[in-house]
Amino acid sequence: MRLFRCFFVLSFFLPLGPLALGTVNVTSPTSGAQLGSPVRFAGTASASTCSRGVASMGVYIDDKLEYVVNGTSLDTSLSLSSGSHKTVIEEWDYCGGATYSIMPITVTSQSGVWVTSPSNNATVGSPVKFVATSNTSSCSKGVATMGVYINDSLKYVSKGSSLNTSLSLGAGTYKAVVEEWDYCGGATYSAMKITVPTATADAAAPSGGTAITNLQAKAGWVGYGEFPPSYDICTSCGSGVSYSMKQGITSPSMSGKAAEFKIGGSKPYSDVLWTNALIGSMSTQGLKDSGHTLLPNLHTFTYDVYFYGTNLETAYALEFDTSQYFNGLSLIWGQQCRVEGGHEWDVWDNVTSKWVHTGIACKPKSNAWNHLTIVSQRTSDNQLLFKSITLNGVTNTLNRYNKPGKVSSSWYGVTVNFQTDGDIKQTPYTVYLDNFTFTYQ
Prior knowledge:
- By secondary structure, the chain is an all-beta fold.
- It folds into 3 domains: 23-108, Immunoglobulins (Immunoglobulin-like); 112-196, Immunoglobulin-like (Sandwich), CATH 2.60.40.10; 202-440, Jelly Rolls (Sandwich), CATH 2.60.120.
- The chain contains no helices and 33 strands.
- It has strands at residues 23-28, 34-36, 39-46, 54-61, 64-70, 73-78, 83-93, 98-108, 112-117, 122-123, 128-135, 143-150, 153-159, 162-167, 172-182, 187-196, 210-212, 222-226, 233-234, 242-249, 258-264, 271-280, 300-308, 317-326, 329-338, 344-349, 354-361, 370-378, 384-391, 394-402, 405-406, 413-421, 429-440.
- The strands form 6 sheets. Strands 18, 19, 22, 24, 25, 26, 27, 31 and 32 form a 9-stranded antiparallel β-sheet that branches. Strands 17, 20, 21, 23, 28, 29, 30 and 33 form an 8-stranded antiparallel β-sheet that branches.
């Protein structure tokens, strides 16, 4: 069983890396999509380091520029041959900078409807996002409209050969159909079964507070290896454990700027800790709180993140943690999802320095984005309250209290951690984080 050893970090290295020139948010096509021709390309852009803004946007197909438009948005359809293509939407700003997003796609000559979200037999939270494209080889005039049926009732219709919408659905199992109608009177469709789980009243994070958004894309992340049995941190860990983090990942991604976390090595059951000091004297986000007027008054923290892995079963455990330090107290809200280790949530006991089983199942999905929301609170007498864990729309209320630990340091700070734990073979694996929001109040 793992021991959570990194209570706080005495020094932080802050590699800022290359400064992003801007952002490109692509709404169509999605990376890895299989679809028909013509292909719709749509997106928006911003230039974060150029005060004059974005000048133009363009579409590359297999490294050849095929379309350019002036302004900060792009929406066009391009005819592509059947097969695999590397597609890129790029923005150019008035200061000479450029940023892009890459979307590999496969174009098929067959007519039909291609649904990229949701997948068949998926369990999804509400509202449910429907994304699809269509073509028709039998009608030279093309596709007129597309629509979404829920349990044989038409709920949404849009013009054109692509569809992107979200529908609010109550808990239950549904037959969903995405259909296209062409200008010649023909129609084709794609059907799928989806389940919306029951969500309790605690499913939503507490209202209010201050949010730090897209945390996976911000500066300040520092990684450390950890070796059994003590799990003390190391920076020069040798071949026993290897790790890396890469930001600005466009595939897989929800925002176009996911973060990639890799773990490997040769020593069984080795871990990798990634930490970011958000508030306090070591703040990476400009929240130094030198007068100690902010941090001691914070009582509620919400850790909200999406994570993705192609084979999450190779992870012994994934850890998601929030820590608060002040007045010699160490308050660590540690939560680990033991995947290979038993598909169960554990929480960290600050006093005994041990993991405690909750009996709550943790079964994240591979090859899909998992949405995790953890709500933690500090009581008026400085007890830790593990409030709730929501995974893929299903909330489990813990309401578990614990005492804080003690530290000799006078440091004030709030940190967030993400940790990947290796198995007995130290099997390498990769996890992606996206849309990471941390809210404090």
